Amino acid sequence: MNDLVQIVNLTKVYEAGRIAINDITLNLPKGRIIGLLGPNGSGKTTLIKMMNGLLTPTSGSIRINGNEVGVETKAHVAYLPDRTYLSGNQKISEVLDFFCDFYEDFDRSKALEMLKSLDIEPDRKMQTLSKGTKEKVQLILVMSRKADLYILDEPIAGVDPAARDYILRTIINNYNPEATVLISTHLIGDIEQVLDEVIFLRYGQLVLYTSVDHIREQKGKSVDAYFREVFAC
Amino acid sequence: MAWTMENDRPIYAQLIERIQMQIVSGEYPPGAKLPSVRDLAAIAAVNPNTMQKAFAELERSGLIITQRTNGRNVTEDAELISGIRQKLANEHTADFYDKMKSLGFTKQEALDFLTQSFEGDKDNE
User: Which of A154, A147, A66 is nearest to A102 (CA)?
Assistant: First the structure.
């Protein structure tokens, strides 16, 4: 078993009976940068939250490195949520302390080095940072862990093009053949050339899992253009 | 600067063309050391596995040589490089002529355009 993530018959039904994830079976290998794509409400964040143990599946299973999602897998999954969970009152340096305490695999000197390269002073409070800078700081925190799986939920939404470039370059520079990066986004065009593979979700179902160049080869168009075609209203 | 990719073709094919062009144009002369896959992927802002695939293809064609301990170098085989240069020139010329033909110009008129265009380019004697 070489697959890092094994998802089998995964289903999530919310209270009102709404099916958010509908019987997904999917294996993700190591050493890839994978886009998780789908329109709003297609189940991207629900899937990500189940991979992080923040939601429990209604049925089916997710294994990461052979382990059911739980305490063991959380130690090896670095997660950038779509909303911040850090207190605005904390200084960046205090957040670094927090990450050191929480995650055995957190590399503080790496984080400091990355902050320095961006001229971000560690004694600044989180709430004083611009949206783009805050996104960069949170990405630095996540990428400074030596995890097996990095899950980034909408890391480039609402940041300016320079911040977006920095974020994409950081993801490339931290590439590790033993780890996989899963990035959810609806801004496909911006990120396409950084991805190996893409997952298309619609109404909680898996529509497609294939490589970017396979789509370009077969369809003669970008993943972005193909996505618009598949999900045309 | 990130490399700009066209939308209608595989990315790895465009990486191959781009690196080929850098070699043929002398930006990376014969025998020159090439950046690592990781560094070049970061410069181009593309996926490292895709860059790896492009390098593997360039190795197969003999344009790039991998030394076990010393990274990757451009081939010393000047003949191979000039062969590829020739091939690219033929492709561009054929492409030009096809386009002129579809615009309704004759062979002679297409040639006249070329001559005129070259006369305008005085810097490049």
Answer: A147
